[in-house]
Amino acid sequence: YQKALYILDWSWGKIYAVHLRPDGSSYTGEKEDFISGAPLPVTDAIINPADGAMYFTIGGRKVQSGLYRVTYTGQAETDPVKAKTGGQKARNTRRSLEAFHGKTDADAVKAAWPRLNHEDLFIRSAARVAIESQPARTWMNRALKEKVSERRITALLALARVEGIDPFHRERTDPPVNDTLRDDILTSLLDIDFDALDENNQRALVRTYQVVLNRFGTPNSSIALQLTAQLDQQFPAATIELNQVLCETLVFLQSPTVAKKAIALLKRAPTQEEQLEYARSLRMLTAGWTNQLRTDYLEWFRNAANYRGGASFEIFIENIRNEALATLTAKERHDLAEVLNRKVEKKSPTEALTANFMVGRTFQKNWTLDDLAADAEAGMTGRNFENGRTMFAGTACYACHRFQNAGGSTGPDLTGSGGRYSPRDFIDQIINPSKEVNEQFVPIVVEMLDGQTHYGVVVNLNRDLVTLNTDLTNPNQRVNVDRKQVKSLEPSKVSPMPPALLNMLTKEEILDLTAYVLSAGNPNDVRFAN
Length: 530
Prior knowledge:
Elements: E1 5-9, E2 14-23, E3 26-36, E4 42-47, E5 54-58, E6 66-70, H1 88-98, H2 108-112, H3 121-132, H4 140-145, H5 149-163, H6 179-190, H7 199-216, H8 221-234, H9 240-252, H10 258-268, H11 272-282, H12 291-304, H13 313-325, H14 330-335, H15 337-340, H16 349-358, H17 369-378, H18 385-394, E7 402-403, E8 406-407, H19 423-431, E9 444-448, E10 453-462, E11 465-469, E12 478-482, E13 486-491, H20 507-518
Antiparallel strand pairs: 1-2, 2-3, 4-5, 5-6, 7-8, 9-10, 9-13, 10-11, 11-12
Helix pairs in contact: 1-3, 3-5, 5-6, 5-7, 6-7, 6-8, 7-9, 9-11, 10-11, 10-12, 17-19, 18-20
């Protein structure tokens, strides 16, 4: 903890300890919950060099303020630690390239060019910016003719950035768009063998296409058709990240096939975050629609109206829908009038996320740990990754739990479950959620003097006013309680996680779900090897 980086989260009342380790010329790390409270609106923190303790404050927005001191009690060594120099060589390389940033230097291109395809992202980026700082005429032809594909992608991204101007920043006094250079850049990029690239470089290539199209505009029809054909062939891809940039680009190019493919992905996507990416991209598409595809798209907005997010979330959804409606023709508006006039059916976030999953499903069994323990311990090989991912979403895990940067935050982050639970213990946690309730997410039971009882998580304190969130899937479902009218306030012994979550699943589906979570969502984990 002496070597950790601490991050304060005012909204969720947490202080995270991030344990860093050198990774190339930068760092990567793992976070853990260090301190949490309900509420604990942390506003600042320092480490006092005089006593080595952490001091942090809470408050803001007229809520109760406070000053806390955190010290260590235990047997571990607490002498000051010495900084380690791991990764120093890579950092020196990055810093030597950063020395060329923002100034003309005759040595910059020579030093930076070989590192345009460096395996380290930050060195690669530093090399690109060093080259962007030099006159484009001195390296333009080299970029267009570069033989190493990965290097060519980065070099042409640099060229697009320095020679193109995005529409929002273009002034009347700027020179006209250089159509010849645009076509030269795109032609050079099209010569790259897409399939020979790894996934990171495939995404870099598509992203470079996006920057060129944004800053130079749509190319002539011949190049546009070649580009559409290349990307259509790759969509859908194996990963969410690549699918998202492919979808965006194909919509810009008005591909006639992207609507059908993207709607299929939209309907299968398990999280609202993933769904939003496809819905947002499709809003500007005018080509390739059928009435059924339009209906499926419009129905998504009805369901998404029940999703939950930040204060502006509903407005974002509405803005996406309005822009999508603006692309409808008069005939489409006539044909889809009934769909357009359908009212939103109010559902809980859990119901909205699991609506498609539950169609046609029936009760399987009131599963017990004894039913599953032996198979869980013996059956964690040859599992189905995609099925496990579907089960995770279908059983509404995302409604409360964070997993791989998606989902809610009202329950523990499950990404690191594989380091904490055996398959048996993990299934036990699901079947018997109240057996051991995580102390950071324990609701409280408030009994009032008038006989009323409230159940929820404290999210705010303001003098004698206590605010409870009474529905963990809906952060806006709140009740205010006067502390002077409280008879008793006790931690609940019942987990907010409902039992019987697995009763609609088969044994094989439960095992796939278990493998998916314990693998941290890694499709290359040994649990999924055939």
